Amino acid sequence: MNNVVLEFSSRVENVAFARVAAAAFVSQLDFTISDLEEIKVAVSEAVSNAIIHAYENDPEQLVRLEINIAGEYMEMEVVDYGKGIEDIEKAMEPAFSTHPERMGLGFSFMRSFMDKLAVQSAPGQGARVKMSRRAGAPRRAAAQEQ
User: Fold this and answer.
1) More exposed terminus of the chain, fewer Cβ within 10 Å: N or C?
2) Any catalytic annotation for residue 49?
3) Which of 14, 19, 45, 77 is catalytic?
4) Residue 132 — φ and ψ, nearest 5°?
5) Are 85 and 127 in contact (CB under 8 A)?
6) Is 45 considered catalytic here?
7) DSSP readout, 31-73?
8) How far lies 46's CA from each of 30, 77, 92, 137, in Å?
9) Confidence (pTM)
10) 104 has a pLDDT exceeding 70
11) Domains assigned to the chain
12) DSSP-derived 3-state class of residue 92
């Protein structure tokens, strides 16, 4: 198994860093350029959710990105220590957002670009978004797990 753990400030400009770091690390697997773009979108959405929703754009907080590679599989976790998600099932509905200016499609993108998606959270306890994908194989949209 190969892994990397990154912690960075919850600043919007670090979304791009997380995207590039994740794509660079998982590129050792047999992912196509299109696959890597989808992975980057999923990472962007998870990190953006932490920054915007969990921390309400407070740049003094930390976001943790963990990536593990085992065989043909990569697994990523985006962890925040913010306000948590009150209703995970509701939050994962397409077009639902707690911010009216947001589209509410983050979890929909994550689900469509990953093989598995799991979200663990509770109010006041932060959130852990776990995503996984197999390289070099046809993919189905992720089943929702909690």
Assistant:
1) N
2) yes
3) 45
4) -140, 155
5) yes
6) yes
7) --HHHHHHHHHHHHHHHHHIIIIISTT-TTSEEEEEEEEETTE
8) 23, 9, 12, 23
9) 0.85
10) no
11) 2-145 (3.30.565.10)
12) coil
pLDDT band at residue 103 under the 50/70/90 scheme? very low
Tokens (6 digits) for 101: 């200016």
In tens, the pLDDT along 50-72 reads 999 899 999 999 999 999 999 99
Provide, for the chain, the percentages of residues in helix, strand and coil under a 3-state DSSP scheme, each rounded to the nearest 5. Answer: 30, 30, 40
Q: What is the mean pLDDT of residues 9-18?
A: 97
Active-site position among 64, 66, 68, 102:
102
DSSP string, 8-36: EE--TTHHHHHHHHHHHHHTTSS--HHHH
Give the integer Cα–Cα distance in Å for 56 and 61. 10
Q: Residue type at 126? A: G
Q: How do 116-121 and 143-145 pair as beta strands?
A: parallel
